[in-house]
Amino acid sequence: MDWDEQKALIAATCGHPLNERYPVRASYQEAFVKRLMQLLKDHEELHDDLFSSLTSQKCEQQDKDFAYKHYLLLQPDAHITLRESISFVNEGTTGLCTWEAALALADYLMQHSDVVKGKNIVELGAGTGLIGILLKLPELGFDAGQILLTDGSASCVQLMRDNVALNFPKTPKEATPQCEQLRWDEVQDFPWQQYAKTDLVLAADVIYDDSQFDALLDALDHLFTSRGNCLEMLLASTVRNVDTLHKFMEQLTNREYKVTPCANVSACVSHFCRDHTAAVQIISIKR
Ligand SMILES: C[S@@+](CC[C@H](N)C(=O)[O-])C[C@H]1O[C@@H](n2cnc3c(N)ncnc32)[C@H](O)[C@@H]1O
After folding, report:
1. Could you tell me if 219 and 269 lie in one domain?
2. Which of 37, 150, 176, 255 has a 20 to 30 Å separation from 221 between CA atoms?
3. Are residues 193 and 105 both part of a single domain?
4. Which residues of the chain have pLDDT under 70?
């Protein structure tokens, strides 16, 4: 790489205006620049911007528990910026960072936009809010109906609201995803009448704790029954423990749901820099 190419690379990554305003995790940026320096070690000259991006990042990161991630969706040109926890578990919840299953579901929806067109959507356990933000980005033309992002954790709901505000600074509130606290065992008490009738339920990485299965299934029963079963759910799960997933599938069958596996997402093009070593299963649930 010549001098100008090094400058351009740093400008498009560490020096990107999104990263300057909303910096990614300092340790990630440091690892990236150090790796770049290692790859360029035989070059006579390393551009000054490489060194300055290392030092500036170190000084800037004030929030030790949270950092930003940017997903640049190139065709069409759009991007999502999410503030996320840098730890998998924070404030007693796993939902303050985005998990592989949500990224895989996002990729799946990018390739199957017909699934969401015109639909009023509720997401359960929505975490950082990635899916709802994606579906409302005007550049992507999903043309989804009302989107209600829910989570049982108050911290997640606050983070989702912050992320929605970050990604839709000028959009009228009614055209952005709504974010509300909803614990699955309190689904009956939720003010559903204030929202459009649900056509599609989404959930990613919510099948990991079997003590929550009854609450989740009761919540599904409530949603399906209230819509006379004219409803579909798409559930994305990282395959960590086959027995846990199997147990949930059995309980779905016992409650007379019909489960159909969706296309293989490991094979589909990823817009979200997923770790393809973690297998993610996406299923359609109907009754
Ligand atoms: C592993 S995180 C997944 C977050 C997000 N869907 C993703 O894939 O990035 C699981 C999410 O489910 C939520 N959750 C777990 N149990 C819940 C319950 N009983 N009621 C509502 N939300 C719950 C957690 O707060 C958390 O946000």
Report:
1. yes
2. 176
3. yes
4. 57-62, 264-268
How remote is the CA of residue 87 from the centroid of ligand 1, in Å?
15
Q: What pLDDT score was predicted for residue 61?
A: 60
Residue-wise pLDDT tens digits, 27-76: 999 999 999 999 998 887 888 888 888 877 655 666 788 999 999 987 77
The domain in which residue 28 lies consists of 3-62
What is the CA(130)–ligand 1 centre distance, in A?
13
Q: Are residues 144 and 49 in the same domain?
A: no
Question: Per the domain annotation, does 164 fall within a domain?
Answer: yes
Q: Give the SS3 label for residue 286.
A: strand
Tokens representing 196 are 């459009």
Please say whether the dihedral angle defined by the alpha carbons of residues 95, 124, 177 and 154, taken in this order, is positive or negative: negative
Report the CATH number that the domain containing residue 105 is assigned in CATH: 3.40.50.150
User: Which atom of ligand 1 is nearest to 101's Cα?
Assistant: 8
- Give the relative orientation of helices 242-254 and 213-226 as an angle to the nearest 10 degrees: 40
